[in-house]
Amino acid sequence: MGSVLVTGGAGYIGSHTCVELLECGREVIVIDNFVNSSYESIKRVQDITGKKMKFFEGDMRDRDFLRSVFSENEVDSVIHFAGLKAVGESCEVPLEYYDNNLNSLIALCETMAGFNVKKLVFSSSATVYGDNQPPYNENMKPGLITNPYGRTKYMAEQILSDLSISDGEWSILILRYFNPIGAHESGKIGEDPKGIPNNLMPYILKVAIGELPELKVFGGDYKTPDGTCIRDYIHVVDLAKGHISALKKLDKFKGFDIYNLGTGKGCSVLELINKFEEVCKVNLNYSVGDRRDGDLPVCFADTSKAEKQLNWKAKYDIGRMCEDSWRWQISNPKGYKR
Ligand code: NAD
Ligand code: UD1
To answer: How many CA atoms lie within 13 A of 21 on its CB side?
Structure first.
């Protein structure tokens, strides 16, 4: 069997997926340009697993570079994580987001077709469900998407659907992630956001370790049991294992399909804070403030399709997600910079 090419493999979800791939005996090739990561995560993946990966530094939009990677290696299938993902930033520099996220995908698919590699797993997001009524299932029409980042994911899904219609030899699986948090149990790899975090768990971690003074809970007046927003947090290791299940499905499948990767369980902002304080034995300084523009009150997955067809189910609970996030943070107070 040839190698799995993991684009964006130095990033948060990519690095955890590389660990799972290596641990189940696959040969792995990583491409990354480090726009939001560093080489340290590659070293640590090899350290955790005791196995080597091939690594190529370059930009996914660079067709000559992609051709050289494909011609030097026997690639069997591709997991495409590489992309920009900050919602706020995507509103400030939309063209950078459309350019990076869509031109990367087009260059990748053209190169794959040129080398007759037609098995692809693509990272999408629950954001494409927009204002639908949860639990979200894969048959729902996309809802109102409020930002350019989310629209790049929706457009990418359309591009891949069109590609599979045009050529029946492709096997394409879209994975729509809910809210990945947590870290590998070794504490050696985790999420390492640049600057002040936008997302809840990375912010909690910075407050817990004393780098930021206070967490603001964005809104306490939603129509939810405790007034704060509800999300479907999923352990990043469960998410990574979902990619292994997707790859297995690619081997016996042609066409295009979509799967939610979540736990199917909602958790409010206050519930996550309380659980974090309980299992990590830290007091978090927080207060409830105004709502954040664009936030949905409730978002969680219907996971039955992935359970039945991918034979995959998330197993870690919120307590374990908090524990593993905290271990990563205290073992690496400055992230990969040390
Ligand atoms: P990340 O930023 O940690 O990882 C993405 C990686 O891609 C980074 O290492 C970055 O350097 C690399 N990259 C970006 N553009 C590139 C390019 N043009 N060429 C080469 N490398 C490039 O993000 P992540 O959280 O690991 O997310 C992975 C994927 O999953 C992204 O596509 C993201 O949009 C999607 N996703 C993430 C979440 C989440 O909450 N983390 C939720 C839904 C979907
Ligand atoms: C956000 C993005 C979404 C993206 C996802 C994963 C928005 C509107 N949505 O989702 O497109 O796929 O990240 O990267 O940005 N919260 C606080 N205080 C904070 C930070 C967050 O109370 O300092 C709350 C938010 O209001 C939300 C919850 O925590 O209710 C989770 O927030 P976050 O981690 O940013 O994820 P999403 O908003 O679900």
So the answer is: 27
Instruction: Parse the chain into domains and list their residue ranges.
Output: 3-182+234-262
Q: What is the pLDDT of residues 4-41, one digit of tens each?
A: 999 999 999 999 999 999 999 999 999 999 999 999 99
* Residue with token string 């519930």: 271
pLDDT in tens, 47-57: 999 999 999 99
What is the average per-residue pLDDT within 110-118? 98
- Give the whole-angstrom CA distance, residue 157 versus residue 163: 10
Q: Does 233 qualify as catalytic in the annotation?
A: no
Q: Which atom, in ligand 2's list, is nearest to the CA of 127?
A: 11
Q: Taking CB atoms and a 6 Å cutoff, what residues make up the pocket around ligand 2?
A: 85, 87, 125, 127, 150, 179, 198-200, 203, 215-218, 229, 231, 269, 292, 294-295, 299
Task: Tell me the pLDDT band of 1, cut-offs 50, 70 and 90.
Answer: confident
Backbone angles phi, psi at 83, to 5 degrees: 170, 165
For residue 61, the surrounding DSSP H or E stretch is none
Beta-bridge partners for 301 = 136
d(CA 276, CA 279) in angstroms, rounded, equals 6
Q: Just give the CATH number of 3-182+234-262.
A: 3.40.50.720
